[in-house]
Amino acid sequence: MSSSSRLGGAARPRAQHRHSGPSTALAMATAPASRDRPASRDPPPPSRDAGRGKMAVCVAVIAKENYPLYIRSVPTENELKFHYTVHTSLDVVDEKISAMGKALVDQRELYLGLLYPTEDYKVYGYVTNSKVKFVMVVDSSNTALRDNEIRSMFRKLHNSYTDIMCNPFYNPGDRIHSRAFDNMVNSMMMQVC
Amino acid sequence: MAGSQWDFPVELCCRPMAFVTLTGLDVVYNAVHRAVWDAFCANRRADRVPISFKVLPGDHEYPKCRTKRTSYEWYIPKGILKTGWMNKHLNLVPALVVVFYELDWDEPQWKEKQSECATRVEIVRQSLQGRNTKVAVVLIQKKTPLPPGEDVIASERAAALCNACDLSGKSLFVLPHTDHLVGYIIRLENAFYEHAQTYYYTEIRRVKSHKEFLNKTTHQLLFVRHQFKIAFFSELKQDTQNALKNYRTAYNLVHELRAHETNMLEIKTMAGFINYKICRLCFQHNTPLDAIAQFRKHIDLCKKKIGSAELAFEHAAWMSKQFQAFGDLFDEAIKLGLTAIQTQNPGFYYQQAAYYAQERKQLASMLCNHDSSVVYPNPDPLETQTGVLDFYGQRPWRQGTLSFDLSDPEKEKMGILSLQLKEKNVLHSELIITLLSNAVAQFKKYKCPRMKSHLMVQMGEEYYFAKDYAKALKLLDYVMCEYRSEGWWTLLTSILTTALKCSYLMAQIKDYITYSLELLGRASTLKDDQKSRIEKNLIKVLMNESPDPEPDCDASAVKASQKLWADRVSLAGSNVFTIEVQDFIPFVQCKAKFLSPSFHVDVPVQFDIYLRADCPHPIRFSKLCISLNNQDYNQYCVVEEAYQQSDILEQSSQGTMCLVPGKTRKFTFKFVAKTEDVGKKIEITSVDLVLGSESGRCVILNWRGGGGDAASSQEALQASRSFRRRPKLPDNEVHWDSLAIQASTMIISRVPNISVQLRHEPPALTNEMYCLIVTIQSHEETVAKDVKLTAGLKPGQDANLTQKTQVTLHGTDTCDDSFPALLPDIPIGDLQPGEKMEKPIYIRCGTVGARMFLVYVSYLINTTVEGKEILCKCHRDETVTIETVFPFDVAVKFVSTKLEHLDRVFVDIPFLLMTDILSASPWPLTIVTSQLQLSASMTPVDQLESYVENVVLQTGESASECFCLRCPPVTNASGVATGCYVISWKRSSPVESVPVVSTVITLPHVVVETIPLHVNTDLPSFGRVRESLPVRYHLQNKTNLVQDVEVSVEPSDAFMFSGLKQIRLRILPGTQQEVLYNFYPLMAGYQQLPSLHINLLRFPNFTNQLLKRFIPTHIFVKPQGRQADDNSIAAA
């Protein structure tokens, strides 16, 4: 998240960052001018009730300059492997972003869909208007997760990220250290039983 | 190589083509036959029919055909597909055998030849007993045949020959050996192709006809085999659509087979073959998505079919091969025009193949780690009698066994052992690296730089496992910067760790140090204990000792490297390593900062070097030196401290040269700039930090410029965005993030201590000697020596201004154009403290407009800095903008003697020239004098003396003059130069005495016309009512002709008159006539005179109108004076 991208969304109320707490900021952000927040916050993510098995194995937030702001993977597996997976998926993200660069900002779809399938995992991508990327890795065998559910998971992620941005003590571009964000990601990565 | 057992057989991968053999051709000794054969096989382009030809002798033995089975009832197949079957139908059993025979239709010994030919055909038929192979005869003839139907003998003999050879007419061909050989050959091979297709069609029918005899229980294998054969024959027939359909059926049938550990390999082998064929055909049909879908299905179906657990590496090898083959097919299709995309390209398949190869390596290392005492079984269970397998995918030691129970467990064990021992010798890393590099090439093509880097890391790691450390290091070093520049520290750390191992194992000291530096740095994600270990090793290396081995290294390699390190230690030379750090992230950070962006030369230059270490333990360094762009200063920018080697890790932070982790350390440097560097930039070119000592090993960390490394620019950006408040620190400490690098400073001259004042009276007037008085006063405490003044037009303005501006020191004389616009370095001498001096400067501006003038005073002065005497050059400059304006405007006009405006003048007739000088100067002007300089074509009527001499004009005032002139006759009527008007003037109150300025005004040209007659009137200035008013008209003839003139007077209401009312005169050339009238005014006021009409008979064009100009028309008539009134006034 850089200053330039924030300038891009000039319509957004600058006051967001000055609010004392995330909760107030969240209430503020329902205004249509809030660009960095997904347009629709419903339907509520069904994944919470849909069973513990169908969850992500890795969630990452990548800065505009493509360095990681946050990466978390299931502890049972090789963390390094997921770092590589997320990093290589940025090739596709970059390509998709440059392809849609010409599209109008308002009509732009933030959800990038399936980036590329590997033998074992599916990698999904999402990019905010400020070019912050979310990448989610899902087990290939996990057929229960449909596109819609992935979408709503990303939306949840985006909302949580926006809350972090609203925190006046958070400096955009710094690595994310937030308990609320951790908890939210944990809820998405509930271990396969 | 053992790995090749997984490669697909050549006959599977080739494109099947109809097989046709040619007999009766002697291609070695017979030139004609050679030419025929060449025409068949040379230059087979894509537009030729797909046939593979082979020349065989006429008596060649073809593979024997087994007797046809009449019933399958008791037949139990031993495997799915025989290994020789495909090759047999591609290269051994022809679809058509062609018998070439030289025979012309008009052959004299026809009968003998005919029977010989029939014999040859018979021999071929014998050899093909039981097969459906077609036979055809080609007669090579010397003569060009006649068109069909015209040659009666030919058709007769052809029928006879067919009869004798038992051939249908369609199987007999004639090949005339003439010029058009290739054309005939192409027609021939098309005919052969038709025969071949018929053959394969019947073969397909034959195989299909077996189907009804089969049953599902015992003949399961045959279903697959037959289906495969039908598909393969369809391919030979070039019917790819049906081939694909049949392969698909075969594929489904393979997976319906009862699978068991013993036949799993056979099933997978066949499934792989059929899948390969399907994918290949799909790509050929340009349906790549079908190919991909089939391949995915294939992988999904087979992924879990591992087979024998002891031979699990075989499954991985097989999987790897599947992916690799698909990648090859995909790549081939792309070469033929298919477009791949970023997310679907062959690279993914090569990558997956590489992963399975890695898995194979892992499994092999687990399953094949037999003790060296285990010997390869004898007799070799993998040997077969023929040297090859009978069926694809079977075990050599139990070929054709269908039972799932193992009849001989001991034999099975031996077989597995021999396979495992063979696998042990496979160079897995080589396979993996080849596959990875294939994938790298693909990803490079499809814009996946990160994927490419990732694969290169894996290649590097594989080289590391293969103990090719040099190559591993090369690859890792190459990709490292990608991860560094994108800030993926976890990945960078992992790569660095491997690179460190490589450099340790090769004992590459410089690399070892470089990687250690970065692994200790802030970008490293290693745990502190690891960092601590690395730092200790680094210090050992600096102390000329061997470091401890890196963890998880191969024991034998460690042993070898320890020896290398020991050798390195004993070598004395080349112990200084310079490491440029700006391209990576070392554990010491450096920032250089000049205290100010500029320093006066009489003030010492100061800068700070900030250092900070990120390693876990404090570290000492031996020297810090800074290089500046002027190397003379470098001697002042060194900190050095001798210390014992053992002190290097001393825990105390007392020493000046000790960096404590997390603490920022500041070093201040100070030096006096040289006076010749005034106006120059002083830049820090590099900062060198020396670790270790010359006696042990010495590492120089070299920062280019004022510090900073690969990560610091991003950090600086983040820090600048941050609005977090930083906790207060003690005075002598600073926040590292808040420090900004300032690597250069300017040396500027000493602040001058003199005043320069300018006194003048703007604006300047054009061409005057404008006086600018410069007052210089010294406020220095010592003598200002060698004071010089530079004054004049400031350079860099419009070039025309330079031409039109002159500057001089002498105001008494007017300067001309040769004077310069800028007077440089006017020596003034020395100025004592407090002394004041004035210097007038005269400026002449030739054009109006604004000009910038520069007054620059420089001098030398002695001063002391830091106890050092220096001679400073100081200067002060002033600029002033001076506007130049015209001093006055001059208006000139021509008027007649009646003061009427004239747009032309008449020859010899006097007129008036009026000049009007209007002052535009804000200062009073004195017109010293004025002078009218007439041109030759003008003559004055009276004296031309100036009327405005010594007149003073205030702003807006004007002075006018009037001159009476006459114009003698001229030839050029269009315009005559009048002359010039010269005004000599000066300011009324000049600052100094200045010369008079002469401004020359060129007078306008005037049009001169001649007239034939001029009328001159004598008229009193006024009349009085009822008093006689005599008027005399002088009519002058201006021509060389005698003129007849008619004069008439029209009466006016206001006058009575006496005189000639109408008269006709004759005037001689150059003379004049007078006409006298007496007017008697009747009314007072401004009255119209009785008008005089003059008619020139010789000049009908000459109108009265023109003359009216000379003849007065009105006169003022005063009322009649009253005597009484005069008296009363007198009385009063």
From TrEMBL, chain A:
Coiled coil: none
Region (Disordered): 1-52
Keyword terms, alphabetized: Cytoplasm, Endoplasmic reticulum, ER-Golgi transport, Golgi apparatus, Transport
Record's signal peptide: none
Gene Ontology biological process terms, A to Z: endoplasmic reticulum to Golgi vesicle-mediated transport
Cell compartment(s), UniProt: Cytoplasm, Perinuclear region; Endoplasmic reticulum; Golgi apparatus
GO-annotated cellular components: endoplasmic reticulum; Golgi apparatus; perinuclear region of cytoplasm
Main location as per UniProt: cytoplasm
Pfam (any one): Sedlin_N
InterPro entries per UniProt: Longin-like_dom_sf (IPR011012), Sedlin (IPR006722), TRAPPC2L (IPR044760)
Family: Belongs to the TRAPP small subunits family. Sedlin subfamily.
Name assigned to this protein: Trafficking protein particle complex subunit 2-like protein
UniProtKB/TrEMBL annotation, chain B:
InterPro entries listed in its UniProt record: TPC11 (IPR021773), TRAPPC11_C (IPR025876)
Keywords in alphabetical order: ER-Golgi transport, Golgi apparatus, Transport
Pfam families given in the database record: Foie-gras_1, Gryzun-like
Localisation per UniProt entry: Golgi apparatus, cis-Golgi network
Top-level lineage group: Eukaryota
Occurrences of domain Trafficking protein particle complex subunit 11 C-terminal (ranges): 1036-1094
Entry's Gene Ontology cellular component terms: Golgi apparatus
Gene Ontology terms: biological process: vesicle-mediated transport
Domain Trafficking protein particle complex subunit: 263-521
Family: Belongs to the TRAPPC11 family.
Function, as annotated: Involved in endoplasmic reticulum to Golgi apparatus trafficking at a very early stage.
PANTHER family, A to Z: FOIE GRAS, TRAFFICKING PROTEIN PARTICLE COMPLEX SUBUNIT 11
Name of the protein described by the UniProt record: Trafficking protein particle complex subunit 11
The organism of origin for this protein: Cairina moschata (Muscovy duck)
